[in-house]
Design goal:
The chain is of the alpha/beta class and 313 residues long. It has helices at 13-22, 34-41, 58-62, 82-88, 100-116, 118-126, 153-162, 188-194, 214-220, 237-245, 265-268, 284-304; strands at 4-8, 24-27, 47-51, 69-73, 91-93, 145-149, 168-172, 183-184, 197-200, 225-228, 251-254, 273-275. A seven-stranded parallel sheet has the order 8-7-6-9-10-11-12, sandwiched between helices. A five-stranded parallel sheet has the order 2-1-3-4-5, with helices on both faces. Helix 7 (153-162) links the parallel strand 6 and strand 7. Helix 1 runs parallel beside helix 12. The protein is elongated, with a radius of gyration of 21 Å. 42% of the residues are buried. The structure holds 2-keto-D-gluconic acid (8YV). 2-keto-D-gluconic acid is lined by residues 51-53, 73-76, 99, 278, 281.
């Protein structure tokens, strides 16, 4: 008999088909009244499939008394109540590592785009302005100063990419990272003041909420750019909009927002921002690799009682 699995949040279509092949899958979003469904049938499910955005809240886990394993497609755990899972002895699998390259590539795509004004220049050509005007000068990337907030798996790949652009790297982190050659800067404002580009690569959640506030943005200054491929919650979004509208920073490249999929309307009017719909890991190759690890976490759990990549270790 296939194990009964509740699916909360969408997965790539090929992964959903493979999931349905091996498990008795019930999609939570297809229920008209999810709350009532959970109250009457929540006790049937031994597995929960989710993604980094949908996560698994304390309330959801509480509705699933027979739950033994959660598998999440993604690396972010800010929407997952790890504490509840731990208390209940539920295994939690996630997909670290396999998305570092694409997320770092996206950080650079945003950085290059906003500094060299790629999207703005594209709009300039498409709207027929080229024959009548010259496009304003942009900002050089090569040789500049890159401040990385969070020198974890993704931060380290971003730093590696920057070598190709002859950039100097400094970073901030909860504490200095062993075996990292770049200079550690304890104060975020100091790092922002030094940097031409400040890239956010920390995990989301309560500990990092509004880490990037008006003070840090003011330190980044009118020649500095902010790049965020982490979580919208890390930035005080109102302060960021204010800094961008009033040109207190040069620009921003954003893949993530505080209240996705809603983006502050004021940003739509600005030419010095590049806005992406949370796609940093969204390549065919990486989503497939994430999907493989996501499936593997479940498969290994049902044969050994442990997931391959545990979020609790
Ligand atoms: C995805 C992410 O948006 O892994 C994460 O933390 O934010 C992204 O890779 C998400 O997992 C898609 O389902």
């Amino acid at each position: 008999m296939k194990p009964k699995l509740l699916q909360h949040g969408r997965l790539p279509p090929t992964i959903e088909s493979r999931l349905a092949h091996d498990y008795n899958v019930q999609a939570l979003w297809s229920e008209a009244d999810a709350k009532e469904f959970l109250q009457t049938r929540g006790s049937e499910f031994v597995a929960l499939a989710t993604n980094a955005i949908s996560g698994a809240s304390r309330e959801l886990i509480a509705e699933l008394p027979a739950l033994r394993v959660i598998s999440s497609l993604g690396v972010g755990l800010d929407a997952m109540s790890l504490e509840t899972a731990k208390q209940r002895g539920i295994a939690v699998g996630y997909t670290p590592g396999v998305l570092n390259d694409c997320v770092a590539d996206t950080a650079f795509a945003l950085l290059m785009n906003v500094a060299r004004r790629v999207s703005a220049a594209d709009r300039f050509v498409r709207t027929g302005q080229w024959p009548n005007a010259s496009f304003p000068l942009s900002s050089r990337v090569s040789g500049k100063r890159l401040g990385i907030v969070g020198m974890g798996r993704v931060g380290q790949v971003i730093a590696k990419r920057s070598a190709g652009f002859d950039m100097t790297v400094r970073y901030s982190n909860l504490q200095p990272v062993a075996d990292v050659a770049y200079q550690y800067v304890e104060s975020l404002s100091e790092l922002a003041d030094w940097a031409d580009f400040l890239v956010i690569a920390v995990a989301g959640g309560a500990e990092t909420e509004h880490l990037i506030n008006a003070k840090v943005l003011n330190a980044l200054g009118p020649r500095g750019y902010l790049i965020n491929i982490a979580r919208g919650t890390v930035v005080d979004e109102a302060a960021l909009v204010d800094a961008l509208v009033n040109r207190r920073i040069a620009g921003a490249g954003l893949d993530v927002f505080a209240n996705e999929p809603h983006v502050p309307q004021a940003l739509f009017e600005l030419d010095n921002v590049v806005l992406l719909p949370h796609v940093s890991s969204a390549t065919e190759e990486t989503r497939l690799a994430m999907g493989e690890l996501f499936l593997d976490n479940l498969k290994i759990f049902f044969s050994t009682g442990r997931v391959t990549a545990s979020a609790l270790e």
